[in-house]
Design a protein that fits this description.
Receptor-associated Protein; single chain; 347 residues; 2 domains; mainly alpha
Length: 347
Amino acid sequence: MSKKRLDELGVSAFCESMAMMIQAGIQTDEAVALLQSENRDGGMLEQGLSEMKTLIEQGSGLAEAMKSVEIFPDFAVRMIAAGESSGRLEDVLFRLARYYAEQKTISEKLRGAVTYPAAMLLLILAVLTVMLTIVLPAFRAVYDRLTGSLAASSYAYIRWAGVFCTVALVMMALLACALLVGLLLWKSGRRAAVEAVLEKFPRCRSILETNALFRFTSATGTFLASGEMQDEAVLSSIPMADYGPVEQKLKKLAGRMEEGHSLAQAAYDEQLFEPVYGRMLLAGERSGGLEHVLGRLTELLEENSVQQVDRLVEIVGPALSGVLMLTIGLTLISVMLPLIGMMNAIG
């Protein structure tokens, strides 16, 4: 049974710390020992560092030791192994630190994009339930005790408020159930089923595509930094996209590269990125700065992804708030109209 793995933030912190110590001239085994001395909480990382220190002292490389302790992602282990073999370990570690930090940022944004609407749904369900079970029945009981025509003319408003609240409650309950089912499917590893539904909404599809391209470009840049050839870097990075439609485009990209096209030219021809990004890659490749341009493109894709998630929250949040305020407002008006009619009759 495999061990529990570090999260993105833990992997990022490990890679950045190792990169800075190696940059300062500290040997790998000494760097791992120093990291172990800084982590005395008895947790997963400290135990892993202890095992790694022993393995490295016995002659294992950093990547081999990381693979043995089974707490690091396979992608990070593979990148570090390539960095060790090419003599570019320091650069690869810095890139991995940035990659996993960016992954953490996007993950938190996506989690927040789900948490806020979920909280609003629960609030709406609670308010509607209170309206239907306490508020409206209380007013009905009061008006039912009144006789004659005093309240009869406007009593129907309360019935309409009950119908409106019931319909709104059913709709919000269905939406909450759909959200819960989606989360359960996502966590159970059936992401494709959830993505198939999200793809039907243009804004959600754009977020999925941007995230996939971000993961691909970041992985490709890291592979290139580790010394791999362009075609090998692309083929190795395709699974990192982790989104079917984008992976299909990337396979076509790899096919064009097999025909002799460069990465930038194939990406431009296949319209993998927006035209301005495609021209950036072409200019970077022609000037010998492809890795730098890929890094900049990764940053732009991350910013774009975060902005898209923020815009989605800005739409969903006010929409749900509007439903809540509309429901409460109509209910209050419906229960107050009979009272206003009674006061006018008395006056």
